[in-house]
Design brief:
Blueprint (H helix, E strand, L loop, with lengths): L3 E6 L2 E6 L10 H15 L6 E6 L3 E3 L14 H8 L1 H8 L5 E5 L2 E3 L1 H6 L4 E5 L3 E3 L13 H9 L1 H10 L3 E2 H6 L5 E3 L4 H13 L3 H14 L4 H15 L3 H12 L9
Parallel strand pairs: 2-3, 3-5, 4-6, 5-7, 6-8, 7-10
Antiparallel strand pairs: 1-2, 8-9
Helix pairs in contact: 1-3, 5-6, 9-10
Length: 257
């Protein structure tokens, strides 16, 4: 049975898209299960970070065209109902998310890879927009996410030419943090997730939110917004612990509160 596999390693949750026969192609059922899985994990007070990867040879090959009719005649309503909740859950998750891209991330799968906080890639991974090859425009957030990660010109190049972006080039362009040999990608992702989980996760999520808000704010507006968030976050248990640890010259022991 396909869907999303859930695993746990201490404070780190591992979600695996588990339909390898289709290279984890998107269907309403798969994306619905992903939305549920992210929310289930995020509702666990002991969870401090998430890793998302794909089973088999691919991360996500994009839309499963055989399942496209399941979206109904009103494509906008169908996508917003079946697909948006999963992408929204990832973008609004209250813990940091590491994307472990273990193979092709194509079309909507490329969008999915960008919906976390940090991307790691297997050496065999590749990223391809693919949309214009079939006469479509990029969707599932690609036109918002990609230029913010690699810039307008490089985004247009990928979207207009449909050339695959290798893992190594993705790292050069700043899309990917690190490239791993295929067999050790998940180990690397879990190691990074554990590092994030040991941090002040409430602060890390607030930082993500500030960065996203800054896209639509003036310098003066964002300056004020930073201080507003700072005034709130500095009363948190982690901020108090961080200052105490600094003064006492010891490593901080963050709790995520």
């Amino acid at each position: 049975m396909g869907g999303v596999k859930r695993d746990r390693d201490g404070a780190v949750g591992l979600l695996t898209l588990d339909e390898p026969a289709s290279l984890n192609a998107m269907t309403p059922d798969l994306l619905g299960d992903l939305a549920r899985a992210v929310r289930e994990m995020a509702d666990d007070a002991g969870l401090r970070a998430l890793v998302l990867t794909g089973a088999g040879r691919g991360f996500c090959s994009g839309q499963n065209l055989k399942a496209f009719q399941a979206l109904g005649d009103d494509i906008v309503a169908g996508v917003m109902h079946h697909y948006w909740p999963a992408l929204q859950a990832l973008r609004e998750c209250q813990v940091p998310i590491v994307m472990a891209v273990n193979g092709v991330a194509a079309g909507g799968g490329f969008s999915l890879a960008m919906s976390g906080d940090i991307i790691l890639a297997a050496r065999s991974a590749s990223f391809i927009q693919v949309f214009s090859r079939i006469g479509l425009v990029p969707d599932l957030g690609s036109t918002w996410l990609l230029p913010r990660l690699i810039g307008r010109q490089r985004s247009l190049e990928l979207m207009l030419l449909n050339e695959p972006l290798s893992a190594e080039r993705a790292k050069e362009w700043g899309l990917v943090r690190e490239v791993f040999d295929d067999g050790v990608l998940l180990d690397g992702a879990m190691k990074l997730a554990r590092r994030l989980a040991e941090g002040p996760t409430r602060t890390l999520v607030a930082t993500r939110r500030l960065l996203e808000e800054s896209e639509h704010a003036s310098y003066a507006e964002q300056f004020r917004r930073e201080i507003e968030v700072q005034a709130d976050i500095r009363k948190s248990e982690d901020a108090l612990e961080g200052r105490a640890a600094f003064l006492e010259k010891r490593p901080a022991r963050f709790s995520g509160r």
